[in-house]
Amino acid sequence: MLPVVVVHGGAGHIPKERSERSTEGVCSAARAGYIILQGGGSSMDAVVGAVTELENNPNFNAGCGSVLNVKGDVEMDAIVMDGKSLGSGAVSAVRNIANPIQLARLVMDKTSHVCLTAEGAGQFARSMGVPEVPQESLITEYSRMRWKKNLEPEANPVEFQMGKMGTVGAVAVDSEGNVACATSTGGILNKMEGRVGDTPCVGCGGYADNSSGAVSTTGHGEAIMKVILARLILFHMEQGQSVEAASDLGLAYMKSRVDGLGGVVTVDPQGHWAARFSSGQMAWAAAQKDTLHYGLYTGEHFTQSTEMLLID
Amino acid sequence: MAERFSPDQNREDQKKDLKMSAVVVVHGGAWAIPDELAKASVDGVKVAACEGFSVLKRGGSALDAVEAAVRAMEDNIVFNAGHGAVLNADGEMELDAIIMDGRTLGSGAVSSVKNIANPVTLARAVMEKTAHVMLTSRGANLFAESIGTVTVPTDTLVTEYERKEWEKRKNYVTGVMEDFNAQWVHDTVGAVAVDCAGNVASATSTGGIRNKMVGRVGDSPIIGSGGYADNLSGAVSCTGHGESILKVTLARLILSHVEQGRSVADSSQLSLQYMADRVRGAGGAIVVSPSGQWAATFTTDRMAWAAVDQDVLWYGLDPKERFKEQFSQ
């Protein structure tokens, strides 16, 4: 059963012309994470590796390809958590760096703090020698087009939001049974400057605990925060629920209590995994026992040998 | 309205008219409070609890009560929130706060905001006037400006005491792992309440830890860690070693025990013990249930706390201490 890695590329409505690229992206990220695990890397290495790849992929709302805030700027949030120590690192509203997930890991590894925000996070990045990148390098034509369109008076921001509300994330269990999670996002389109969503909040955007499992979430951030979705799912697992049942219970509760939609990837320390969502779609992929699993629409589950993928 | 909450009234009557007993509980931070601050801290939490309870007696909501109680402590220079908060590594003040409404699970928070006298009120505005839950740093300040919140110069928020303490400590390497009970760590304020309608709310506000890195966000503004409120289980406000509280999502953890049928006191005790065992963190929590059960619990040397329940003011500072006075406005 071990090791295993599961990734998501965000829950929401993915336009058809972009769906194939989303699927390819998550498959490739899962493969990258799995290679790290097979090479003896830790689950933390694997989730950071997988999410780094999704941040670098312009098709996802994280790192390059992040949505723009109301002023047309990119402000990103990310979190990592290590299930062995419950150690966690997060950054919120950080600018001008390519890989917020790696900065979140530095916060965990190099400071006595858990979360650094805004300019303070930027200062820390510079002190760690993380290269500063021009904002332009994080902005795609697509994200700028959507930002402009949403500023038009007749725009319906809520409807438009659904076009791409997703965050990226990963969970993994390594061969020693350690679990980890990582989540990264550009947030929501046309958000206020300084808006922080669920992603960098421990228990909301993700949680990892070797005694129960790991979860990375995506979807309507404010709803996820209200129910502390990742932690809620793990409470259910502590009560004996399976990864799948616990994920569904958490998502159903979020829908009924605060009318929020979203998706999650979940693992337990034994290597059981689930990719569940209440939104119409979520691009996801998992790699386990040399098999790659992936899907996009509800009920979809394709498999492929990873050996074949390792060659291409 | 006072007679409605008299202790002699039998429970059946309360059920009949669906009036529950209103309760407010506040804390002024869990840490090794030095003797010279002890009296001022206890006096401060008593005033804040009475302030919150007066709001409830006038028919105010739990949300109004926790905001009023926390504002009283933000305005009191003895506490590390608002006026009197600690300084970061650059000698600046960055404030965090959260408020949560147990009726809707609605929440508002600000992190790393500057030059605001009452961050808890700004947090409430985030909840009520934006589609977001949390605003950080400059964005939070821009929002404050846009709704007409008065910006105050840093100097008016910094006390002479804090400036001196900061000077003394600035030689320490920032970001080193410190024993939490070291006296230079100075903590958070918070309040929880249940109103006559059975609605619960929580609020927490802090300056964080002295000499913290610029932009450090602790547990206080993080939903489920610094505070949580849910009419189905109760409301919690936490204090103590922020990074430990985050790792165990302390507020939500306590309520998960309540949901399993445990008392608010047992739930707090179990969760704080778990935090001590699992991540070696000390802290404190105040909890109130929708039926008016409450607890103030801590694993640090001291926590200044006070509660008003049925016109009786309870308060304490040292472990197992529980004094009682008649509530007066």
Task: Outline the biggest β-sheet of chain A.
Answer: 9 strands, mixed
Please describe the biggest sheet of chain B, giving its number of strands, its sense, and whether it closes into a barrel.
9 strands, mixed
Q: By CATH's scheme, which homologous superfamily of chain A applies? A: (Glycosyl)asparaginase
Instruction: Specify the structural class of chain A.
Output: alpha+beta
Number of separate helices of chain A:
10
Mean pLDDT metric of chain B: 90
Q: End-to-end distance of chain A, in Å?
A: 25 Å
Oligomerization: heterodimer
Model description:
The complex is a heterodimer of chains A (312) and B (329). Chain A is α+β, with helices and mostly antiparallel strands. Chain A has one domain (4-311): (Glycosyl)asparaginase (Glutamine Phosphoribosylpyrophosphate, subunit 1, domain 1, 4-Layer Sandwich), CATH 3.60.20.30. Helix content of chain A is 36%, strand content 27%. Chain A has ten helices and 14 strands. Chain A has helices at residues 16-38, 43-56, 100-110, 118-127, 141-151, 157-161, 221-227, 229-238, 243-258, 306-311; strands at 4-12, 76-82, 87-94, 115-117, 168-173, 179-185, 195-196, 206-209, 213-219, 262-267, 273-277, 281-288, 291-297, 302-305. Chain A has a nine-stranded mixed sheet. In chain A, strands 8-9-10-11 form a four-stranded antiparallel sheet. In chain A, a hairpin with a 4-residue loop joins strand 13 (291-297) and strand 14. The longest helix of chain A is centred in the N-terminal third of the chain and has 23 residues, at 16-38. The radius of gyration of chain A is 17 Å and the shape is globular. Chain A starts with a strand and ends with a helix. Chain B has one domain (31-317): (Glycosyl)asparaginase (Glutamine Phosphoribosylpyrophosphate, subunit 1, domain 1), CATH 3.60.20.30. Chain B has 329 residues and is of the alpha+beta class. Mean pLDDT of chain B is 90; it is low at 1-18 and 174-184. In chain B, the strands form two sheets. In chain B, strands 4-3-2-6-5-1-12-13-14 form a nine-stranded mixed sheet. Chain B has helices at residues 11-16, 35-57, 62-74, 119-129, 137-146, 154-157, 160-169, 242-247, 250-259, 264-279; strands at 23-31, 95-101, 106-113, 134-136, 189-194, 200-206, 216-217, 227-230, 234-240, 283-288, 294-298, 302-309, 312-316, 323-326. The longest helix of chain B has 23 residues, at 35-57. In chain B, helix 2 (35-57) packs antiparallel against helix 3 and helix 3 (62-74) runs antiparallel to helix 4. Chain B starts with 10 loop residues before the first helix and ends with a strand. Classes of the chains: A alpha+beta (312), B alpha+beta (329). Chains A and B meet through strand 3, strand 4, helix 4, strand 7 and helix 7 of A and strand 3, strand 4, helix 5, strand 7 and helix 8 of B.
